[in-house]
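The protein record minuted underneath.
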Amino acid sequence: MAGPVALTRAVADETDDNFVMRRDALYNGRRCNHIPERVATRGFMLQILKSFLNEVGIGDKPASRFDENDYRLAAAALLIHVMTIDGNETVAEQRKLHDLLKRQFELDDDAVDELIEAASTADREAVDLYAFTSIINRSLDEEGRKRLVRMMWEMVYADGRMNEFEDNVLWRASDLLGISQRDRVEMRREVAALATPHDDA
């Protein structure tokens, strides 16, 4: 099987007639008479080459819809941090993460999957929670931050129970988000009252 370099050369070696036909098809059959033939052909060759390189993983990747300053990315990263802190990521927690992000941010399934992938990478690369809480503090008011803390508690109790690692993360995150101890504890009690202990590895 030819490698990327050989295939790239093969693309570049196509005849001008083939590129002209491709170019004309790209412009819906309308020949661009105002563009010199050689310039138009070379430009189209570059476009074909760039598309090919993207397909084989050499070119630029499509831009993510969630940039590093998007509060949704920061919120998802906090939820993922809660989910993975104990090293025991369950099916119930994965399902809860997907449902929370889809409901709160009104995303379709593909967007949720993209957000989870981006947030997982961000969580692995972050040195502390402040990287995320600072973005959220700039983006959300107090009620919005409370909703996020409640989402984190829902993430904690997705498997019906809480451990000391999760409790510690919620304490630190709530403090950085400016949520009082009283509100944090009250939300924990409300969510815990609705949780049902179960095993779902």
User: Anything to note?
Assistant: The mean pLDDT is 79. The CA atoms of residues 4 and 56 lie 7 Å apart. DSSP finds ten helices and no strands in the chain.
